[in-house]
Q: What sequence folds into this?
């Protein structure tokens, strides 16, 4: 029976995603994992040292392990390294309750903002925030995307022997389109309206965020920014909540490379 989980996988010793190409492979591996395990992906966000996902799956431990294995094979082959990549275990939290689920999706989609990389959640490209209510918010893709079955794109940007539905598309950089992977219809039903979605993406975290969850009849943990970010290498609650106000001065540099 599928349940809903927040999964966070991180690395304290080295950067997981060194450049834009790594981010693309990372998301494609996540998409393949969701397809292979017949899971429903609701939200995700990639940063240089960790990734988050909200997923409905039968086995969250296997889901996280399979994702890490697929990406580690790419990373090790590309950068000439061996062995495990990242922490040994992922941080997994079960989510039960619509308010808890909404709160978790909010946090994952606002990763770029919380980490001080952008001044609005919608400016961060490596997460699912721009996949919901695309028509209503004027975010439908106007670019020509390459059919997935292009052999060159499959060879370069996907792992071998994985069956991908023909309806899936890629952009010119080899990224599987998030709107083909994320179950946007399910998530849009949670938010109900585009207006509420915009409100949720722009509101500040306060005591009410937790109080509303406590009213739910659920035995799962209250979703907080501390819980979502547990195990990530650069978490600073005070700084993250300050970043939430959008008062940062960044120029779109989302990748942090290990010094050599």
A:
């Amino acid at each position: 029976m599928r349940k809903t989980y927040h999964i966070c996988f991180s690395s304290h010793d080295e950067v997981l995603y060194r450049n834009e190409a790594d981010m693309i492979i990372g998301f494609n591996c996540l998409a393949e994992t969701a397809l292979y395990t017949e899971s429903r992906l609701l939200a995700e966000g990639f940063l240089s040292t960790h990734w988050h996902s909200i997923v409905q799956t039968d086995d969250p431990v296997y889901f996280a392990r399979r994702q890490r294995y697929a990406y580690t094979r790419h990373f090790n082959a590309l950068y000439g390294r061996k062995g495990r990549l990242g922490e040994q275990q992922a941080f997994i939290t079960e989510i039960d309750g619509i308010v808890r689920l909404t709160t978790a999706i909010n946090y994952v989609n606002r990763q770029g903002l919380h980490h001080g990389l952008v001044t609005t959640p919608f400016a961060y490209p490596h997460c699912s925030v721009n996949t919901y209510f695309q028509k209503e918010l004027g975010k439908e893709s106007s670019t020509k995307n390459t059919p997935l079955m292009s052999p060159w794109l499959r060879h370069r940007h996907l792992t071998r022997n994985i069956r991908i539905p023909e309806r899936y598309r890629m952009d010119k950089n080899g990224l599987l389109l998030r709107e083909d992977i994320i179950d946007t219809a399910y998530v849009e039903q949670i938010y109900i309206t585009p207006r509420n979605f915009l409100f949720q993406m722009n509101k500040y975290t306060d005591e009410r965020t937790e109080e509303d969850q406590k009213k739910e009849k659920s035995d799962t943990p209250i979703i907080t920014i501390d819980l979502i970010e547990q195990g990530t290498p650069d978490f600073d609650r005070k700084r993250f909540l300050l970043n939430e106000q959008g008062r940062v001065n960044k120029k779109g540099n989302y990748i942090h490379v290990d010094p050599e």
Q: What stands out?
A: The CA atoms of residues 176 and 219 lie 36 Å apart. Residues 3-235 form a domain with the Alpha-Beta Plaits fold (CATH 3.30.70.1290). The beta strands are 3-10, 40-47, 50-57, 91-95, 146-147, 169-170. The first helix runs from residue 20 to 36.
